[in-house]
């Protein structure tokens, strides 16, 4: 492949990543989800960057194959129901993954950096915070949406590396793989929730594309070099997340931001009352962040005290 071809391929890949919403009409996501119930509409969602003819062809092919595919592999569409017997609305999470957030958690807790490593982690986070605060200022919605795309990375990287370590060393994980993957999934649900209210612009997609490339690799290297440092950094990042959601709440309370009704996905995921608002959602998300803060500082403490993560049972389902 010539340099020219490679460059063209890279820019096509990049445009596909950042363009779907920019080049296609906005989609009502709530309506979109209910379409998913009636037919396998994943194609529509995943390939929303394709030209209309291609889009039509993909879903037609999928529909005509549906019966054959299901009967051959023995996998039939999900039959999950609510407690009242009605059909479960979501494919992206199931009733057993939902929970009621523990709001009694202390949102003011702070790990006091004493050792050099802790100070290094603390100041790394403070340094990262400067450009982020300058960029977003009080645009909380935008801030939350973009930051959640980053927040869901460490759990996945840590979980993956512990998974590989378990395979490589023929040893148990103490449940930490699952705990970290749960954290990543929970952060991704925060993102899915904010997407119902805010819609990323093309330049925001471009920023995320670049930031993900850098952050994934930086965290991957950091976790290999020093898992306790990596967890400490995440602990401090989560402390900042708690602070920024507290600021979000202040602006909802003083009327600077409109307290819109809670998205349906949030009501089902956190088992919130039907009349909940964005404020209720931000409160449960902040509680999640406080749990991640504690889990990551704890993971760092275990290792700072000379133990391995697998020696302490992981807090699974810790919300
Ligand atoms: Fe989050
Ligand atoms: Fe978080």
Automatic annotation (TrEMBL):
Q: What class of enzyme is it?
A: oxidoreductase
**Do you know which InterPro entries this protein is assigned to?**
AOX (IPR002680), AOX_sf (IPR038659)
Cellular localization per UniProt: Mitochondrion inner membrane
Its Gene Ontology cellular component terms are: mitochondrial inner membrane; respiratory chain complex
Q: What is its main location?
A: mitochondrion
Its EC number(s) = 1.10.3.11
Q: Which Pfam families match?
A: AOX
Q: Does the keyword Protease apply?
A: no
Instruction: Give any GO molecular function from the UniProt entry.
Output: superoxide-generating NADPH oxidase activity
What Gene3D superfamilies is this protein classified in?
Alternative oxidase
| Example GO biological process | alternative respiration
Its placement in the membrane is given as: Multi-pass membrane protein
- Superkingdom of the organism of origin: Eukaryota
Query: What keywords would UniProt list here?
Result: Electron transport, Iron, Membrane, Metal-binding, Mitochondrion, Mitochondrion inner membrane, Oxidoreductase, Respiratory chain, Transit peptide, Transmembrane, Transmembrane helix, Transport
* CC cofactor: Fe cation
Q: How is the cofactor bound?
A: Binds 2 iron ions per subunit.
Q: Which reaction does it catalyse?
A: 2 a ubiquinol + O2 = 2 a ubiquinone + 2 H2O
Where are its TM segments located? 144-164, 206-225
Asked if the Swiss-Prot or TrEMBL record annotates the protein with the keyword Mitochondrion, the reply is yes
What PANTHER family would the database entry show?
Answer: ALTERNATIVE OXIDASE, UBIQUINOL OXIDASE 3, MITOCHONDRIAL
The UniProt entry's sequence similarity note says: Belongs to the alternative oxidase family.
Q: How does it assemble?
A: Homodimer; disulfide-linked.
Please identify the protein, giving its name as recorded. Ubiquinol oxidase
Species: Acer yangbiense
């Amino acid at each position: 492949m010539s340099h020219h071809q490679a460059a063209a391929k890279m820019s096509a890949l990049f445009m596909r990543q950042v363009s779907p919403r920019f080049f296609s009409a906005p989609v009502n996501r709530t309506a979109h989800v209910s379409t998913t119930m009636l037919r396998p509409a994943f194609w529509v969602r995943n390939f929303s960057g394709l030209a209309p003819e291609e889009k039509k062809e993909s879903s037609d092919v999928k529909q005509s194959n549906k019966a054959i595919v299901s009967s051959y592999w023995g996998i039939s569409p999900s039959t999950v129901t609510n407690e009242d017997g009605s059909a479960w609305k979501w494919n992206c999470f199931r009733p057993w993954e939902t929970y009621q957030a523990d709001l009694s958690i202390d949102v003011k807790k702070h790990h006091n950096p004493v050792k050099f490593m802790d100070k290094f982690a603390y100041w790394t986070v403070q340094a990262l915070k400067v450009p982020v605060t300058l960029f977003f200022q009080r645009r909380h919605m935008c801030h939350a949406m973009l930051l959640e795309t980053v927040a869901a990375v460490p759990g996945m990287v840590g979980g993956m590396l512990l998974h590989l370590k378990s395979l490589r060393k023929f040893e148990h994980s103490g449940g930490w793989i699952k705990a970290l993957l749960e954290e990543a999934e929970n952060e991704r649900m925060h993102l899915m929730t904010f997407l119902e209210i805010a819609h990323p612009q093309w330049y925001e997609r471009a920023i995320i594309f670049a930031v993900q490339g850098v952050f994934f690799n930086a965290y991957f290297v950091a976790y290999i070099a020093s898992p306790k440092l990596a967890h400490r950094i995440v602990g401090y990042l989560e402390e900042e997340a708690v602070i920024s959601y507290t600021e979000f709440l202040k602006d909802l309370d003083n009327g600077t931001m409109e307290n819109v009704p809670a998205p349906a996905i949030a009501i089902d995921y956190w088992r919130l009352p039907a009349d909940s608002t964005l404020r209720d959602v931000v409160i449960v998300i902040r509680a999640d962040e406080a749990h991640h803060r504690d889990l990551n500082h704890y993971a760092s403490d275990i290792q700072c005290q000379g133990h391995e993560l697998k020696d302490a049972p992981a807090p699974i389902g810790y919300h």
